[in-house]
């Protein structure tokens, strides 16, 4: 029975899960949630995620929210097929993946997310991007990326010389980030830039990237 | 006898105490190695080798060196499944997924506003730093909304992820403890019937009491 993913193709959190599903060659159905109509803030969606956020996953009787938890569940459920994202055969490698998944969650995301909000969401709410917020967060993000630059000079990917869920977690928000005037933060760091070009060119991500067109004409 | 695991950092740190609570729940012996943050030891070149973001905790288990408290906790549970509280991270993939979902909710929804409040209300005065009243009120409002969701959930379920205490509940202990005991924000928890019941249960666990003792001894 196929998995059902409730979300929106242009949403970075929904894309995070879809990229993982594609890497695992798992069958799924994307059930669109109409954000502009506020569908995510009402029943029946609210029963799937009481925080009123997309995405949510249904797998038989299991219902899950939080894109990182959903992706981790998918990676584990399908660990024997598709690309190995969690290195479950090595406790040490699996632990490294866990570390860098949390780095994305606790260091990278809090710095990059407000920048994307300012460039993409604020205009929709009638505000010009707030330069003070952008500056504060580009400074934070720069410091995080300095650590990444050093790490990626020593290993090909974040958790080691293997692509993993930790790298995947960065894809969708960074994709939007690269459309902003702040993209130079990635481009001016050679190892980070090479890593970005590598992971964003993976077929599983290419499948979802083209639909991530929030804010472009007609969307 | 195997070398005990090492945790680097002060027990007063919320992230360090998260790891200590997990180790004690799992009955895994450990050695706590002090890090003098007042003297900037966490930013020293030697420390940055084990935690490149210059934060506590850092963690070592023989040849495995990790950071990010939630990653460390998951690792501990997976490395020592038969020790201590065997169900802390679930005993099957469905239970684990539900726990991960609520650890993510803690990390993405509970932690940001509660961390700001803990810093502003508990740490800043003791460090003689100026408080920011608008930051305080913004984050109180955010945390209220999160706890409203928790109150509904905890009316349906004894603990966040189900009938048993799990890593998801444990993850909340450090910040909630300071909010109740050092920031005079106990009302956030006591004003909601189910949250109050849950807080009473999780904070009276033996493992958490031991962590609180360690924190008291450190002052």
Which labels suit this protein?
heterodimer, A: 219 residues, alpha+beta, four-stranded mixed β-sheet, 4 strands, 8% strand, B: 219 residues, 9 helices, 59% helix, 7% strand, globular
Give an overview in words.
- The complex is a heterodimer of chains A (219) and B (219).
- With 219 residues, chain A is of the alpha+beta class.
- Chain A has ten helices and four strands; from the N terminus they run E-H-E-H-E-E-H-H-H-H-H-H-H-H.
- In chain A, strands 2-1-3-4 form a four-stranded mixed β-sheet, with helices on one face.
- In chain A, a hairpin with a 2-residue loop joins strand 3 (56-59) and strand 4 (62-65).
- In chain A, helix 4 (91-121) packs parallel to helix 7 (171-177).
- Chain B is α+β, with helices and mostly antiparallel strands and 219 residues long.
- Chain B contains nine helices and four strands; from the N terminus they run βαβαββααααααα.
- Chain B has helices at residues 14-25, 45-50, 69-79, 93-126, 133-156, 167-181, 187-190, 193-203, 206-218, and strands at 5-8, 30-33, 58-61, 64-67.
- A four-stranded mixed β-sheet of chain B has the order 2-1-3-4, covered by helices on one side.
- The A-B interface holds A 50-51, 62, 64-66, 68-70, 72-73, 76-77, 91-92, 94-96, 98-99, 101-103, 105-107, 110, 144, 147, 150-151 and B 52-53, 63-64, 66-68, 70-71, 74-75, 78-79, 93-94, 96-98, 100-101, 103-105, 107-109, 112, 146, 149, 152-153.
Structural class of chain B: alpha+beta
Poorly predicted regions of chain A are none
Low-confidence stretches of chain B: none
Q: Name the shape of chain B in a single word.
A: globular
Largest sheet of chain B: 4 strands, mixed
Strand residue content of chain B:
5-15%
Total beta strands of chain A? 4
**Proportion of helical residues of chain B:** 55-70%
Strands ordered across the widest β-sheet of chain B: 2-1-3-4
Which chains have the largest interface?
A-B, 31 and 31 residues
Q: Report mean pLDDT of chain A, rounded to a whole number.
A: 96
Oligomer: heterodimer
The chain-level structural class of chain A is alpha+beta
Would you list the SSEs of chain A in sequence order as H and E? EHEHEEHHHHHHHH
How do the SSEs of chain B run, as a string of H and E?
EHEHEEHHHHHHH
């Amino acid at each position: 029975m196929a998995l059902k993913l409730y979300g929106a193709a242009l949403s970075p959190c929904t894309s995070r899960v879809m990229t993982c599903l594609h890497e695992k060659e798992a069958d799924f159905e994307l059930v669109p949630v109409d954000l502009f109509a506020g569908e995510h803030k009402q029943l029946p969606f609210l029963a799937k995620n009481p925080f009123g956020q997309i995405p949510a996953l249904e797998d038989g009787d299991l219902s899950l929210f939080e894109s990182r938890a959903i992706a981790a569940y998918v990676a584990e459920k399908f660990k024997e097929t598709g690309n190995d994202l969690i290195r479950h055969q090595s406790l040490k490698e699996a632990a490294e993946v866990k570390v860098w998944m949390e780095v994305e969650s606790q260091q990278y995301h809090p710095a990059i997310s407000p920048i994307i909000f300012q460039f993409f969401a604020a205009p929709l709410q009638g505000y010009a991007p707030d330069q003070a917020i952008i500056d504060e967060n580009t400074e934070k993000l720069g410091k995080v990326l300095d650590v990444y630059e050093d790490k990626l000079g020593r290993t090909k990917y974040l958790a080691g010389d293997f692509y993993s869920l930790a790298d995947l977690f960065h894809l969708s928000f960074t994709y939007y980030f690269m459309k902003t005037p702040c993209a130079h933060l990635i481009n001016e760091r050679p190892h980070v830039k090479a890593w970005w070009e590598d992971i964003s060119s993976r077929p599983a991500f290419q499948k979802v990237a083209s639909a991530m067109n929030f804010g472009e004409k007609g969307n | 006898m195997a070398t005990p695991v090492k945790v680097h950092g002060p027990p007063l740190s919320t992230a360090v105490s998260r790891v200590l609570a997990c180790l004690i729940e799992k009955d895994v012996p450990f050695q706590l190695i002090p890090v003098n943050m007042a003297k900037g030891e966490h930013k020293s070149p030697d420390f940055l080798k084990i935690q490149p973001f210059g934060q506590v905790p850092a963690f070592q288990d023989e040849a495995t060196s990790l950071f990010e408290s939630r990653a460390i906790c998951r690792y501990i549970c997976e490395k020592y499944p038969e020790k201590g509280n065997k169900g802390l991270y679930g005993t099957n993939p469905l239970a684990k997924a539900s726990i991960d979902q609520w650890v993510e909710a803690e990390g993405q929804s509970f932690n940001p506003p509660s961390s700001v409040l803990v810093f502003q209300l508990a740490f800043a005065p003791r460090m003689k730093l100026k408080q920011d009243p608008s930051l305080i009120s913004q984050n109180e409002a955010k945390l209220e909304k999160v706890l409203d969701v928790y109150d509904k959930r905890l009316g349906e379920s004894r603990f966040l992820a189900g009938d048993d205490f799990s890593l998801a509940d444990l993850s909340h202990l450090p910040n909630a403890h300071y909010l109740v005991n050092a920031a005079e924000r106990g009302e956030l928890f006591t004003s909601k019937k189910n949250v109050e019941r849950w807080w009473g249960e999780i904070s009276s666990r033996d493992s958490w009491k031991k962590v609180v003792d360690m924190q008291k001894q450190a002052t």
